[in-house]
Amino acid sequence: MEEDISLKQAISKAWKGFSRTIPMILGTLLLVSLASFIPKSFYLTIFQGTFLDPLIGAIIGSISAGNPITSYIFGGEMIKNGVGLMAVTAFIVSWVTVGTIQLPAESMILGKKFALIRNLLSFISAIIIGALTAILIKII
Amino acid sequence: MKIKISKIFKQTKIKMKIKNISKAWYFVLIMLIIYSALYFLNPNLFNKSINFFTNIIIKIIPIFILIFFLMIIMNFFVTTKTITKHFKDKKIKAWFFAIISGIISTGPIYMWYPLLKNAQEKGVSHGLISCFLYNRAIKIFLIPIMIFYFGIKYILILSVLMIIMSIIQGITINKFLGEKQK
Asked: Do B149 and A75 lie within an 8 Å CB cutoff?
């Protein structure tokens, strides 16, 4: 188990984590820079402004993997391109709470039933949070 | 013979170096190849994309410096040792601790699985474990970049909703699976 660490170790651990993130951020930003010139109509073919948008957002977020920063960058671009806040929030929340990629490991270590129920509930809650966030941001 | 051994040694060393390269760099490499192709096929789009990329990098650099410092602080004060110490507290205190420890925990998720398995075996409820995992989605050190993209009001609302949802999810999981490991 991890013992108390010195400041030097904390800096080195932070640097290790941070340096692992750098290529992911660079790649994502390069992709987003290209995607920023994709016409709005492309996004609007996927997200058509219907009640299905949060569901679609949550599905895309659930099957995506990677650092949460990537989901924020994509989410920000989606909003700029006219995708609704409900769908974008469902996308971000499912990205960070549903672990489709980690599901086999989670099932093996913490139990299949636990992993399945937890991920299913996380998927549903991503849609609910998406809806509530969009409503509350208008009210408050 | 000596030359052969040194050749094998050199090749192994190169292979090991390639293995150590993070897979994410391949993603960067693919993007660079796409950009190179774009330079010849559509120079206008290439220039626009590079300008966009440079602008966004300039805006983001100070945020990343802040994130780095927040990561150092987190790593210094929060270790798996400090978290396990409180995981077995009673009732409301335990839920509160699962939320806080989930939010401030760092590192990849697989690093936490053995600890959670251990906690599960020692009688920590499924709900508390799920609550901890859910709150790992709220990353304090990433808040600056979220504010940059979505604004502080959005982050506050989203964080509060996620904390509430983590408790609801925990209670639901306890209802489905029972509070203790069977």
From this structure: yes
Structure-token match 């400041």, residue found: A7
Interface subset of B 10-49, CB within 8 angstroms of A: 22, 24-25, 27-28, 30-32, 34-35, 38, 45, 48-49
Same domain, A33 and A79: no
Average pLDDT for consecutive 10-residue bins of chain A (140 residues)? 73 83 82 76 83 94 82 89 94 92 85 95 97 95
Domain span at A31: 1-37
Does one domain contain both A130 and A62? yes
Tracing tokens 């013992």 back to the chain, one arrives at A3
Number of domains in chain A: 2
Identify whether residues A58 and A16 lie together within a single domain: no
**Chain A positions in Cβ-Cβ contact with residue B113 (cut-off 8 Å):** 105-106, 109-110
- Give the residue from B87, B83, B63 showing the smallest Cα distance to B75: B83
Q: Which residue in chain A has the smallest CA separation from B115?
A: A1
Q: What is the ipTM score, two decimals?
A: 0.85
Does the predicted TM-score (pTM) go above 0.90? Answer: no
How many CB atoms are located within 10 Å of the residue B165 CB? 24
Give how far A33 is from chain B: nearest CA, Å.
5
